[in-house]
TrEMBL record:
This is SUF system Fe-S cluster assembly protein. It comes from Antarcticibacterium arcticum. It holds the Pfam family FeS_assembly_P. SUPFAM superfamilies: Fe-S cluster assembly (FSCA) domain-like (SSF117916). InterPro entries: Fe-S_Maturation_MIP18, FSCA_dom_sf, MIP18-like, SUF_FeS_clus_asmbl-assoc. Residues 12-85 form the MIP18 family-like domain. It comes from the Bacteria.
Length: 107
């Protein structure tokens, strides 16, 4: 019998991983920057992450989603991870957490 996974607990672990990934141009992690729009976990341990980039021609447009995918897949409970990039809605500084704004001297 397959073990029932706690999707909420797994979601928290995923968020902790996302907070270790930084935008190379901004000294703030991608979660606090507001680049992560949604993290979906199903009971099969498949993860889908909807994220954006600070700009469509972001220099890490290729590598950052791949890094997110690989880091999340490295979690024991995650079977698969798909990262989807969207620019709808476009990222703005309003999406940043208070912590990120403070870090960047915007408060």
């Amino acid at each position: 019998m397959e073990q029932e996974i706690n999707t909420e607990e797994l979601g928290d672990k995923i968020v902790r991983v996302l907070k270790t990934i930084y935008d190379p141009e901004i000294p703030v992690d991608i979660y606090e920057l507001g680049l992560i729009y949604d993290v979906m976990v199903n009971t099969d341990s498949d993860v889908k992450i909807l994220m954006t980039l600070t700009t469509p021609n972001c220099p890490v447009a290729e590598s950052l989603p791949r890094e997110v995918e690989e880091r999340v897949k490295s979690l024991d409970l995650v079977k698969d991870c798909e990262v989807e990039i969207t620019f709808d809605p476009p990222w703005t500084q309003d999406l940043m957490s208070e912590e990120a704004k403070l870090e960047l001297g915007m408060l």
